[in-house]
């Protein structure tokens, strides 16, 4: 009999605990008591073992000798020699920045760390960024600006159980993190759940108060609510005086946003907005949580600042039993943004433009600080620059499928095709891997050891539960083998996860995200460790900010922000606003979940959610094929009439490939601070599929 091994789900940031029992082939998922999910899993978690023996699992490297020829099986040495050889050629001719790297927030801490080191030390390129730019970057920037530190939730999710009131802004947790909903029960059952979403989602269905703003107008709503807090006498003056700065400047702007003014912009009735404020202000324990709906905008950073200002005015952050948090998305969305795969970043959440940080990390890496490159392009800017002008000529992708998930995906696919070399390391032939010149088959979650940092900043050890398929290698081994071929000493690129983690600990020591005291050994022994954890006797930090915020003066910052709205407004040619997001059955680009039979059956194809009146006006009815057309492209999908969505808004899930890619229409307008694209609002028109040529 095979015994059950404690494991964590391969997908989202909850990192639900589960058991895996190895079978031949694959494994069986079972429930396991873990505080985040208490034995519950969503449909994706229950079916996750299918990922291990999916029929088209990559089991040998694939190489395309010339463009136009098919990918053919190759040996590992042949594939790695070819990649290293072409990298050398391109860098000799065009300089180090000719080669770029694109990482992912699903990679373990060890992988994210070694990928960043590989780029800076082995490639000496500044051109590295990752898909977390599309995910967390706006909230991260706003959190840092307000609190001096970005940890998605500065408290354990289980703290939410005691809340009277919880406001979820642009987060559809009933579909994106179903087991989290159990921690919202108390608030929900007391009529204290507030949901801000243009759609009446499964989450909004459970709310006492659902505010449905026009997509892209959340900052006006937040300003209106701040106004109502002050005007209603709910400002926590004592807290603001003792623990914050900048209220006067923020108020100068909010003073102009009477709730009726906010109503004009958002479509949310001033009275509803005041009700939400009354609920929040009247609660003993209240939380404000943001998700991608409010963050993925070209004004995402300011919008999150608007929500944080509101939370500060109500005195929520850094108070036991209350708080502000942003719900991190990917499995290692938190750790993935701390250890150096981000364009401007060094391990430990240090900055690449900070001299002391460069010295510290360079010393750990055994190189001179001057050898470390400067900050590079943000994710979309990087993809947009590929194969043109001074842009990179080669791209190495680890843990992302940008052909489906990047904004303006049609353009991104053309940029990838213009490269001299595209290398993709993946477990399956994703849409991006299919375009590659070299595909490297790697091991995944249950086949290797590695740590993940969940949405609460808790570092978890994922253990190897079964043997990887013959022919695959770990990402760490791939990086080491490439580094050695590029002239690096093997000792500088360990591929044992525990050894990499110890080095990561040293590199992060003294930085904002300090992992120095965490070790695989402590995690194996069952210790519960949230960063920062600066030394081996430190108990970790489940709750941040209770005494002071992370700015030098210990105070949080109100940031003066004003509403701008989306980069693209509806007009007579494109009269509707399209927003995009997730559905329960699929994960991200769908590269994994579209290969799970049960999930594909549950949600086989993309669709567009439309109000029945809006559909009728476009000559469409439920079940019809429609074209959704923006200035960037056209998607062809089925119409799903939903009477509870706003009349001016349509919604598409982004998990589907080909002509159904929601990102064919999305707008790559970027937030000036975070580089976040505007996934959540662009102008479109709707037409019957046969009525208009793309
Ligand atoms: N099933 C499933 N779960 C997942 C994932 C997945 O792909 N599938 N991915 C994981 C990842 S990486 C992430 S980042 C999280 C994301 O988790 P969420 O943030 O919950 O997911 P989204 O569906 O992108 O967006 C949430 C909601 O924002 C709403 N919205 C759209 N525009 C606006 C707006 O302008 N204002 C407001 N207030 N709301 C708006 C949408 O209608 C949507 O219901 O989910 C994680 N969990
Ligand atoms: N329109 C629209 N677009 C969006 C969003 C949206 O809301 N709307 N959301 C954005 C967000 S929040 C996110 S997070 C992105 C995510 O979008 P992507 O970056 O495309 O995310 P995934 O589909 O998770 O891609 C991960 C890939 O890595 C592979 N993989 C899994 N584990 C490993 C590993 O250990 N090593 C390696 N080498 N590969 C591995 C998987 O098989 C898969 O092909 O999409 C963004 N795009
Ligand atoms: S909620 Fe997230 S971590 Fe939990 S089972 Fe579902 S996908 Fe996995
Ligand atoms: Mo994400």
Describe the fold and architecture.
This protein folds into four domains: 5-53, ADC-like domains (N-terminal domain of TfIIb); 62-134 and 335-524, 3-Layer(aba) Sandwich (Rossmann fold); 153-326, Dimethylsulfoxide Reductase, domain 2 (3-Layer(aba) Sandwich); 576-688, Barwin-like endoglucanases (Beta Barrel). It is 28% helix and 18% strand. It has 22 helices and 30 strands. The protein has a seven-stranded mixed beta sheet with strand order 5-4-18-17-16-6-7, with helices on one face. A six-stranded mixed beta sheet has the order 24-26-25-30-23-27. A five-stranded parallel beta sheet has the order 10-9-8-12-13. A hairpin with an 8-residue loop joins strand 1 and strand 2. The longest helix has 19 residues, at 76-94. It is globular, with a radius of gyration of 24 Å. The structure holds ligand MGD (2 copies), iron/sulfur cluster and molybdenum atom. Iron/sulfur cluster (SF4) binds at residues 9, 11-12, 14-16, 37, 41-42, 44-45, 177-179. The site of molybdenum atom has 3 residues, from loops.
Helix and strand layout, with pairings?
Layout: E1 5-8, E2 17-22, E3 27-31, H1 43-46, E4 62-63, E5 72-73, H2 76-94, E6 99-103, H3 109-123, E7 128-130, H4 137-147, E8 165-169, H5 173-176, H6 185-189, E9 193-196, E10 209-211, H7 218-231, H8 237-243, E11 244-245, H9 247-254, H10 259-266, H11 270-282, E12 286-290, H12 292-295, H13 300-313, E13 323-326, E14 345-346, E15 350-351, H14 355-365, H15 379-385, E16 394-398, H16 402-405, H17 409-417, E17 421-426, E18 438-441, E19 450-453, E20 458-462, H18 475-485, H19 497-508, H20 520-524, E21 529-530, E22 556-557, E23 576-581, H21 597-602, E24 607-610, H22 612-617, E25 625-629, E26 634-641, E27 649-653, E28 667-670, E29 677-678, E30 682-688
Parallel strand pairs: 6-7, 6-16, 8-9, 8-12, 9-10, 11-22, 12-13, 16-17, 17-18, 23-27, 24-26
Antiparallel strand pairs: 1-2, 2-3, 4-5, 4-18, 14-15, 19-20, 20-21, 23-30, 25-26, 25-30, 28-29
Bound molecules: ligand MGD (2 copies), iron/sulfur cluster and molybdenum atom (MO).
One ligand MGD binds at residues 104-107, 131, 134-135, 292, 296, 329-330, 398-401, 404-405, 425-428, 430, 442, 444, 475, 580-581, 588-589, 591-592, 654, 662-663, 666, 679.
């Amino acid at each position: 009999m095979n015994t059950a091994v404690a494991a964590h789900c391969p997908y989202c940031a909850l990192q639900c605990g589960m058991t895996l029992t190895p079978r031949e082939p694959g494994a069986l998922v079972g429930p396991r008591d873990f505080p985040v999910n208490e034995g519950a899993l969503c449909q994706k978690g229950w079916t996750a073992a299918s990922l291990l023996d999916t029929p088209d699992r990559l089991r040998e490297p694939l190489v395309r000798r010339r463009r136009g020829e098919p990918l053919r099986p190759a040996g590992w040495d042949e594939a790695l020699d070819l990649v290293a050889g072409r990298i050398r050629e391109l860098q000799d001719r065009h300089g180090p920045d000719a080669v770029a790297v694109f990482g992912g927030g699903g990679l373990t801490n060890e992988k994210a760390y070694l990928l960043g080191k590989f780029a800076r030390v082995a490639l000496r390129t500044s051109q590295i960024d990752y898909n977390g730019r599309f995910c967390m970057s706006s909230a991260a920037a706003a959190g840092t600006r307000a609190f001096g530190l970005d940890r998605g939730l500065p408290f354990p999710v289980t703290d939410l159980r005691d809340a009277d009131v919880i406001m979820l802004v642009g987060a559809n947790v009933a579909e994106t993190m179903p087991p989290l909903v159990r921690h919202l029960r108390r608030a929900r059952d007391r009529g204290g759940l507030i949901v801000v979403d243009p759609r009446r989602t499964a989450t909004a269905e459970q709310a006492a108060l659902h505010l449905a703003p026009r997509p892209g107008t959340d900052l006006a709503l937040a300003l209106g609510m701040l106004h109502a807090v002050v005007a209603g006498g709910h400002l926590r003056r004592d807290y603001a005086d003792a623990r914050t700065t900048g209220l006067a400047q923020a108020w100068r702007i909010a003073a102009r946003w009477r709730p009726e003014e906010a109503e004009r912009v958002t479509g949310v009735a001033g009275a509803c907005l005041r009700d939400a404020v009354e609920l929040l202000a009247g609660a003993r324990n209240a939380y404000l949580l943001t998700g991608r709906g409010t963050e993925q905008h070209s004004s995402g950073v300011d919008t999150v600042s608007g929500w944080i200002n509101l939370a500060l005015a109500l005195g929520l952050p850094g108070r036991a039993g209350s708080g502000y948090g942003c719900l991190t998305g990917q499995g290692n969305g938190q750790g993935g943004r701390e250890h150096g795969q981000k364009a401007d970043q060094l391990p430990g959440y240090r900055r690449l433009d900070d001299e002391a940080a460069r010295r510290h990390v360079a010393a750990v890496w055994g190189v001179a600080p001057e050898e470390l490159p400067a900050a590079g392009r943000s994710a979309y800017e990087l993809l947009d620059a590929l194969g043109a002008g001074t842009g990179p000529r080669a791209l190495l992708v680890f843990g992302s499928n940008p052909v489906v998930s990047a904004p303006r995906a049609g353009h991104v696919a053309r940029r990838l095709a213009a490269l001299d070399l595209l290398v993709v390391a993946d477990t399956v032939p994703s849409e991006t891997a299919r375009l590659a010149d070299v595909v490297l088959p790697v091991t995944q979650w249950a086949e290797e050891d590695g740590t993940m940092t969940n949405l609460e900043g808790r570092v978890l050890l994922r253990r190897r539960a079964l043997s990887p398929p013959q022919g695959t290698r770990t990402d760490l081994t791939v990086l080491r083998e490439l580094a050695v071929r590029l002239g690096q000493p093997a000792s500088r690129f360990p591929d044992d996860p525990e050894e990499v983690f110890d080095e990561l600990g040293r590199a992060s020591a003294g930085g904002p995200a300090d992992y120095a005291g965490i070790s695989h050994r402590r995690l194996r022994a069952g210790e519960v460790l949230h960063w920062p954890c600066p030394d081996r006797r430190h108990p970790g930090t489940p709750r941040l900010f209770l005494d002071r915020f992370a700015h030098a003066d210990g105070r949080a910052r109100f940031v003066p922000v004003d509403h701008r709205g989306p980069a693209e407004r509806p007009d007579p040619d494109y009269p509707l606003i399209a927003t995009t997001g997730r559905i329960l059955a699929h994960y991200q680009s769908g590269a994994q979940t579209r290969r799970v039979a049960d999930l594909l059956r549950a949600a086989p194809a993309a669709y567009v959610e439309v109000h029945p009146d809006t559909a009728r006006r476009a000559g469409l009815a439920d079940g019809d094929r429609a074209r959704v057309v923006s200035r960037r492209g056209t998607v062809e999908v089925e119409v799903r009439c939903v009477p509870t969505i706003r009349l001016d808004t349509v919604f598409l899930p982004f998990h589907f490939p080909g002509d159904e890619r929601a990102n064919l229409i999305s707008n790559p307008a970027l937030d000036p601070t975070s580089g976040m694209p505007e996934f959540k609002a662009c102008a479109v028109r709707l037409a019957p599929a046969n009525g208009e040529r793309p």
